[in-house]
Amino acid sequence: MTAKIGVLVMSYGTPESLEGVEAYYTHIRRGNAPSPEQLKELKDRYEAIVGGVFPLRENTDRQVEALQEMLNRSGGDVEYVCYQGLKHARPFIEDGVEAMVRDGISQAVGIVLAPHYSVMSVGTYIKRAKEKADASGIRMEFVESYHLHPELIDVLSRRVSAKLDQFEETGAARGDVQVLFSAHSLPERILAMGDPYRDQLLETSKAIADRAGVTSWQFTWQSAGRTAEPWLGPDILDTLRELSKSQVKYVLSAPIGFVSDHLEVLYDLDIEAQALASELDLRLMRIDSLNSDPAYMSVLSDVVRTKASQLKVIQP
Ligand code: FEC
């Protein structure tokens, strides 16, 4: 008999339309509505990326579909059924767990489409999913991070090398390109909590640099929230200013904390950082996002299968 295992694939979520931006922003701000100025500023950013379309939704849909296909490709005695659960938009994480209940799923694996663990990022997805699963009688195991998975390092190193090749083709020496690994900033207080986020990001950066033979690299933060407390820095915009002062001319951005094209990549890097780079006379390129690249799907499928096997072992 084929056993069914649910896979709750969790992602940040994005509005469905410009009209939905206010509710989305209010959810991110834990129920506090943004001011009209804040709302306008966010809508303007969405308008700027692709005229008010929300690429993260389509990318997440494709990733979930592709993962289900890959998980079931080799057949076997387990059927994996993937469900989407979004942090700040429909279908919410809790909706995904409810859908599993409706389909009679009794055991499931949860995974977040973000490779690095922080109690303030992946930790909150897992907390919400676990609470709902416990209340619904579903046994769930969670993948917490996969930031050093060999296939992830491999595919990201190839992305970095491909762009370094492009720099070379246009006359820049490979060693003159400064590689900037980046991820979403979080409030500085995570460090005092002993959170692994920063260390995991540095480990991923180093592993990619070693594999791709990159010697000039550094890690920098991006997309810090607009709140009063201090956020982890330096921010990528300040890093670009510093690099320009030290006569660096070529910069490759590698946003390793993100796996999809979305606002934080298409606006914060491709529009905002790119505009500053032009002003500073820096040549800035960015590695392509993973999106539903089969190599990324293979990473997800591998870590989900590993978790699922633990689930079956402990299942009476
Ligand atoms: O394309 C899209 O529609 C969504 C892009 C998007 C991604 C994303 C990922 C992460 N965030 C993380 C942490 C925070 C914290 C706050 C915060 C605020 C925002 C706002 C928008 C937004 N985030 Fe986000 N984030 C994305 C979008 N994020 C929009 C609100 C306006 C702004 O600040 O720009 C601050 C909350 C607060 O006010 O208290 C904290 C982390 C990630 C990466 C991990 C993950 O994907 O979950 C961490 C994509």
Automatic annotation (TrEMBL):
Pathways involved: Porphyrin-containing compound metabolism; protoheme biosynthesis
Keyword field contains Hydrolase: no
Known EC number: 4.99.1.9
Annotated Fe-coproporphyrin III binding sites: 12, 29, 45-46, 125
Binding site for Fe(2+): 184, 264
UniProt-annotated location(s): Cytoplasm
Taxonomy, superkingdom: Bacteria
GO molecular function: lyase activity
PROSITE patterns reported in the protein's UniProt record: FERROCHELATASE (PS00534)
Catalytic activity as recorded in UniProt: Fe-coproporphyrin III + 2 H(+) = coproporphyrin III + Fe(2+)
Keywords linked to the UniProt accession: Cytoplasm, Heme biosynthesis, Iron, Lyase, Metal-binding, Porphyrin biosynthesis
Pfam family membership, one: Ferrochelatase
Family: Belongs to the ferrochelatase family.
Task performed by this protein: Involved in coproporphyrin-dependent heme b biosynthesis. Catalyzes the insertion of ferrous iron into coproporphyrin III to form Fe-coproporphyrin III.
Record's protein name: Coproporphyrin III ferrochelatase
Protein species of origin: Paenibacillus auburnensis
